Structures are given as structure tokens and as C-alpha cells.
Amino acid sequence: MFGYYLDLALRSLKRNKALTALMVLTIALGIGTSMTTLTVMHVLSGDPIPGKSAQLFRVRMAVFPDAHYQAGDKAPDNLSRRDAEALLRDARGDRQAAMSGGSMVVVPTQGDPLNVEARYTGADFFPMFDVPLRYGHAWSRSDDAERAHVAVISGELNKQLFGGKDSVGRTLQVGKQSLRIVGVLGDWDMNPRFYDLSNGQFGDSEDVFVPLSTAVDMKLSTSGSMWCWGNASDPLAADAPCIWLQYWVELGTPAKAAYRQYLGNYIALQQQAGRFTHPGQVELQDVMQWLDFKGVVPSDVRLQMWLALGFLGICLLNTVGLLLAKFLRRSSELGVRRALGASRRAIFLQCLVEAGVVGLAGGVLGLALAGLGLLLVRHQPTDYAAFIHMDLRMLLATFALALASSLLAGLLPAWRAMNVAPAAAIKSN
Amino acid sequence: MELRPILSTLRRHKTTSWLLILEIALTCAIVCNAVFMIGHRLQHMDMTTGIDEHALVQIQLAAIAPTPDIYARAREDLAVLRQVPGVQAVALTNQLPLGGTSSNASIKLDPAQREPTLSAGTYFGEDIPQTMGARLVAGRHLQPDEIVNADVVIKALAGGNTKGLPVAVTVITRALADRLWPGQNPLGKTIYLTAQVGVRVVGVLADLVRANAYNDTTAHYSVVLPLFMGAGKDQSYIIRTRPQVREAVLNAAVAALKKADPARVVTQQRTYDEVRGKFFANDRAMAGILVGVIVALLTVTALGIVGLASFWVGQRRRTIGVRRALGATRGDILRYFQTENFLIVSFGIMLGMVLAYGINLFLMMHYELPRLPAIYFPIGALVLWIIGQLAVLGPALRAAAVPPVVATRSV
Known about the structure:
The complex is a heterodimer. In chain A, 49% of the residues lie in helices and 17% in strands. By secondary structure, chain A is an alpha+beta fold. In chain A, strands 1, 2, 3, 4, 5, 6, 7, 8, 9, 10, 11, 12 and 13 form a 13-stranded mixed β-sheet that branches. In chain A, helix 2 (17-44) crosses helix 12 and helix 12 runs antiparallel to helix 13 (392-418). Chain B folds into 2 domains: 4-46 and 282-408, no CATH class; 53-275, no CATH class. In chain B, 50% of the residues lie in helices and 16% in strands. The radius of gyration of chain B is 33 Å and the shape is elongated. Chain B has helices at residues 4-12, 14-45, 70-83, 128-132, 150-158, 174-180, 246-260, 272-279, 281-315, 317-325, 330-367, 376-400, and strands at 56-63, 89-93, 104-107, 118-124, 136-139, 148-149, 169-173, 190-192, 198-205, 222-225, 227-228, 236-240, 264-271. The longest helix of chain B is centred in the C-terminal third of the chain and has 38 residues, at 330-367. In chain B, a hairpin with a 5-residue loop joins strand 8 (190-192) and strand 9.
């Protein structure tokens, strides 16, 4: 029966080409814009580290003097070196890393010096965030403790400095000091850069990774948020009243409550030590909670999505009107079919099949339009532009949305068509 | 024109009429809000900075190895830059208006105050307003003998000994002065950056926008402090020149700085217009998207009107023929369809206004947008009326062309 309906639908669509084209175009425009914005939302709100995002936690707490504490304020994003080092020493998580962004000038053996982005962190950073290494290996925990002059560099920098060859054991000249390269990253595309959102939320990975202890020792310059209270002549000093370190911990599921308890005890100890009397909020957020808290999806993107969905709604209303006109214009034909014994259900299904065919055609055209839309998005001056792409799920979703919306648009016209009274319809002619 | 027959016809096509009304209402609501948002963005992008934008260029450098004396380095660089032909003025600054990366301070009017009054952008450096071209409207500029190297201040603060600390004066923007002391003379008044450090206002600038000017009101709250930061990767040299030669002067300045100390890398080298362009890039893009949405919406709605009107004309060919045979002129038929469209669009607009207001309320809650000004309603209505009339013109002319003889034929 479906084949017959399909045949009828195609014949009917062919009969009035202009109207059919108009309906297909309308649906395609609605689907195209909606899928463009939904894809941007999908990419931006996606899980950057699937499979592990529920085990990685950002640690935040308010550990500063009472004078700077205001009830109702959120705990700051970062920790002071004193607190980060205390948590690192206790090492209560499966893995943990304190880190900061930075920059340094690398002097190649030939060519001009380069200013590169850097990350100062601990040995656990690499296994924690599943960082792939093409050559060599990450530095060890003892390198952290010994402030070893070692570095892991990005594949991109390795290509620039060493032509992409295995550079493990080579020297990276940083100003007048030098670092020994122990590892080279493979392709590591972590977007959004959830581990530190303060130095650009999207973008390529840093070019040089150095142990935090070494970076402080070498007086390498940091970048990102640095908040000091009181008087800090050297903000990087071990006891400086400055918060600037991001702190991440990896925990197995059952360990979360225990870790929270541990942080609570830590705060209590600090209060006893007389550092402050306020409650010192403890926040332990997993990756997705953290991204949500930081509002990584720009509000403009949300606004664009609502606009596009409103547009789709208007396109659907338009399609409903056009389908209704089309079906009712064929009242006499439908009346004849009813008189010859077609049931209401058959008429209803026939009309829906016609709507579905329009929807699928609109979906195909809409997919092309969405492709065009995404191309435009990639040329926008936003930092996430380069990472927007359509995946298989969104591809299937496009057709699902096109079909669902056209069937929805077809419901009312089909229902009206099936209720055409056969006798009146034939007579009126 | 008699409205009754039109209304009774519309009543007979209730569903289709309602669909069209709803479509026009939604279009009206979205278009009103989208146009308003475009206006809002354009207004934001139009923000005045108070400086001589086209005449300025920026250079930022990173040293390869730590600089032994950053203050001497910066002084020498400034002297070198002044020698470059075409350079009119030069200053070292920690931030640029609309530069993005910002330095801010919480300001109190009373050191004992529990919570700060507001946050303001803090410019550190010598000759910043003069070089950037920020106009002084009261008092005086900061004097060379008031400028202190940053390390002296940091040492004094760290030692807890702020007595005799020379950083005691500041120049602030008029917007900040008006906010802190409405209706009073700000000269001679003191603001507190920490409980120990109070600075006296000696000058007022017409304007000097902040680096992070995201909010149109607080964007103009800035203070300039006589603090000399020294050379560093976060500091910028800002050069004032003639707009016609700025590219050449920029290149010459970079060459001169490299010659003065080759052991550094240029991390930023651009005209101020580029700084401004980058700051508003997102807003420009969003305004473009909104224009696209409006055009697409109006097109789809117009096409919908054309489609439905054509259908109605086709359906009523016989009725039209009968009316023509009974003496109606072509003009009567044309006007019939035009009036019908006008009625439908008017209903749509009425519903759309309510919807537009609702959407605006939602946006006000979630996106910090102001209330939709009433002027948007008549303009939105006019646009939709015009589009409706244009869309219906084709089908209506076709209807008017139906010959009376159709009445005598059976289809």
C-alpha cells in the first residue's frame, strides 16, 4: 500500500511544481538554519573527554582572609600555591595536578626566536587527561620533585623546530636557560580546553609543557588569572597570598564522598591554624559540571539557536498552510477515492506520505544549506570557529528533524483531507 | 470597500486564515526583537573611547631572557621610539582601551568601607592620556616627578610602610567622577584602592574607556595612576603618529626597538583600529547573522502569502467570474484581495505585538537587554503591511485578469 501512496504522492507533487518547490524550499531553509545552530550547540556543549569526564574533578575552595570573604560569593576558580602544594603532598586522589598557563620565548638553533604558549604542571597531567605522546614519554613524579629541566613539546612545535623528527633528548633553548625534551605530543585536540578556561576556551594545545616546580625555579612568566590580596612582592613564591593555580584530581566513583570529606577536614585545619574563620566553601565539580558552571557555550550561540528554532516554526506554519491548500484543492479527487471505497485512514496516510516526501526532499536540501551555514560559522571571528563540524549523529538528526517536522506539518492538512465529505466534494464540481 | 463579504469569506476559511495570521504574528515578533538586537549591537559597537583612535599604533614585546633592569630598558625604548621619524608621542601602558586583557581595581570612598563602591580599569604609566589623545576637562595631567617605578610601590606595600609613598595622585574619567560624586567637584577628593592606599584626584578626562568594556555603563570608569611598570611581556608601547603614515611608522618603530635590544620577540604589532575591530568582531558577526535571519524570515513569510493567495485565487476563479459578470470592475477584484491581505496581516500584527513584547521580556531576563522601545511596533507593522501588499499583488492581478466569461463555464 505504501508504494501506491508514494506513487500518488509523487504524481500529486509533480502536478503543481511551483507549490512543491516552495514547500521543499521552506522546509529546507528552516532545517538548514536549525541544524547549523544545533550543530554549533552540539559541538560546544559536547563532552571534551568522554569516558573520563565523570572521574576528573576541579577543586575549588575559598581559602583567604576574612577581610576578602563575602557571604554568597562563589569560591574562586584557582588555588594558592600553598594550598595546591598541600593537596599535592597528601595525594588523596588517584592522580592530581596543579597547573598554570604561561608563555616563553624559545630560541631555535636557526631562525628567529618564537614566543610560545606553555603549561606548567605535574607528571600526572598526561595520564589524567589522556594526553597522547608520539615520541618519548611524560616526565616522572621525581622530575617534579627534583625540579628537573625537562619539557614535553607539541607536535606542531616539534615540526617547526626539528622538522617533525623524534626530538627526544634534544635541547629546547628558553632564553639563556635550557630544557631537555623528554616527550613529543601526538595529535591532541582538546576543545574546549576545560582544564584551564582562562587562557582562551578554545584553541590548539600549548606548545611546551614544563614541570610547575621547574617553571617557578626558572622564573618563567605565567599567564591567566592572578589574584593577590595583601602584599605580594613575588606572586609565585611558595607562601604568596595569590591564587593562580588550577587544581584537578582524578577519583574513582566511590572515592568522591571521601575526597570531599578530606577537603572539609583540610579547611577545618586551616581554620584552626588561624588563617580565616569563614566557612571556606569547598567545590568539587566534574568536567561537565565545571563547563556548565563556567558557561562555556556563549550566550550568543544560545540566542542564535532560539532564533533558528523560531524560524523553523514559521517555516512549518508556512508548510501547514501550503499543504492544507494543496490537499483541499484536490477535494473532488479525494471525494472520488472515498466514494470508490478508500477509508479515511487510507486518505490520511496518503496525505502524510506526501508530506513526508516533501520533508525528506527538504531534509536533503536543508543538509546542503546546513553545510553552507557551517562553512559560514567557520569563517566567523570566534575562537571556536575552527572546531565546528557536523558528525554522523547530527547528519541523522537532520533527516529525523526534517521528517518529523514535515509529518507534524502534514497532520492537520491530512486530517482535514480525510474528513472531506465524498458526496459534497463530488457535487461541488 | 465593503468589509463584510471579506470577513465572511475568511470565516469560511478559518484554518488557513489562522495559519497565515499566526505566521505573520511570529514573524512580526521575531523581526521586531531581531531589529532591536541589531540596534543594540550597533550602539555597543559605536562606543566612544575618548582617544585619537586612527593616530595610534601598539607594539608589544617579549624578552628572550629576563631583563636585568626593566625600568632602564623601558626608558631607553621610549627614548629610541621618540627618535623614530613621524612619532609624535609615545607611552608605556599596561592596557589599551578595548584591548581585552585588562587590569582593574576595586575602588572605595572610605578605607573602612566593607564592600567596594565599584570596579574601575587601572591604567599605569606616564603620559598615557596625552599620548592616546584623551582630553583633559578639569585639573591637570600627572607630572613627571609624580611617576614612581612599580617595584618601589610593591616594596613599600610589602613592607607595610606606605607613608611617604609618592603614588598619591590620579587622573580619572568624567563618567567615574560623576558616578562617585554626583554634582560635586571631584578635584581634591580621595579614592582608596586598598585600605592603606588613598589617591587624590588631580585631573578629570573627558573619556578613556576600559580594556574590558563589555558593559556600556561601567565601560567608562577608568583611573590613571603614576606607576611606571617597566618593560615586560604584558606592557605595550603606544605610539601616536599621523594616520596616513602609521603603517610605516609602526614598521620603523619595531625595527628601532629590535635594534635597541635584539634579544626579544615582537608579540603584537598593530594599529589601534585593529584593536577596536577585534574587540567588536563578535558583535559585528552577530549583527550580520541577525540581518540574515530577518531577510530569510520575511522572504519565507512573503512566499507563504504568495502561495496561499495563489491557491485562493485559483479556488475562487468561478466566483470571481460571477462577480465580474455582475458588474464588478478589475479594480474591485484587485482591491478585494488587497483588503483581504491587509486584514489578515493586521490581525497578525496585533497578535505579533503581544508576542514581541513577551519575547522581549524573556530576553530582558536572560540576556540583559533593555525594554523594547514602542517605536519598533509601528515600524514593524509598516514593514509587514508593505511586504504583505507586495506579496499579494501578483496573485491579486491574476485574479483581476479573470474574464467574466468564466462564470458561464463549468470547470
